[in-house]
Amino acid sequence: MIDLSVSRERIDEIDSQIVALFEQRMAVANEVAKYKMETGRKVYDRQREEEKLECLSAMSHGVFNEHAVRELFSQIMSISRKYQYGVLPHTEDVTDFVRVDGIAADSDTKVYYFGAPGSHTQQAMENFFAPRVQGISCQSFQGVMAAVQEGAADYGVLPIENSSTGGITANYDLLLDFRNAIVGQYVMKIDQCLVGLPGVSLKEIRRVYSHPQGLAQCSVYMNEHPDYNGIEYGSTAAAAQKVAEDQDPAQAAIASRRAAKEYGLEVLAEDIQQEKNNCTRFIVIGPKEIYTPVSSKLAMCIELPHKSGSLYRILSHFLYNDLNLTQIESRPIPGRNWEYRFFVDVEGNLDDPAVQNALRGIKEEAAFMRVLGNF
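Structure (tokenized):
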């Protein structure tokens, strides 16, 4: 029978040798970094690494070991690159973002928000901009983005993610279609209500209008009322406005208490969302790429080489630099079947050395990277 203690002693001895050899290798990597520093060469040489991995895996015996050796040295090379990114001098900024003292707003500030008056987004706008601003209703996500980019608005406010239904995918795509930047966010508890004409009973309702997110957040309630036909509408507040204007007792809307008050409607049922701690995250966008000293969250978009392990290797830059990844959303890349871009949120400030180091590595190794905001 094998003596386990003897085997463990052998493993300990081998591990000590591996650590010593790893440190020798990193010392040589430092020499490589100095050479690249003097010659201006890039850290990442994809062809060189691929040739090296093929050679190393060919030295091993058996299919399992070939794959394992390739994975092991992929990690070692990745660590070496991350070290080099940190020690090489950088004359170019990794982004064009400019630090400012704060987000300026006053009574002359024009802020476009999604939805009709009375919408949750209007409430989020007012809560975020504590000073009074000029809130302007806009009936489309794209319209808010365009108003900010074209200068009609100083800022825009859009919903981006709900705690029960996930990301609002249309707005992720729009973040790349426009050159605006995320400059702030606001998380607000969302209590959805069924609102209708005053005096109407629940038994009279047949058609319920709301934004797709409103219907999704209240899908359990709708299923419990099979006589109700859910109909998608532009926004929750616009749905409430329609019910008020049509004066049809068979119509109702899923909207906020504020929308009901705005349009003279009655709350027929309150807090009908299935997730009682239902929250929506709203983003504040501006035309300039700015951040503040207290900005603590970084949003970016990353496209990857279409090969095995690409996402793992890119995300390892956050792990190596001890950055906390808080959100990741995938979206298909138009015109490229089965290829995806990733929208990522990570904790940190653009002034942090760890953030700068991670971004340099990702920028060099990803097919595409754009920082969308630091807020």
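The chain has a mean pLDDT of 92. Residues 4-39 form the longest helix (36 residues).
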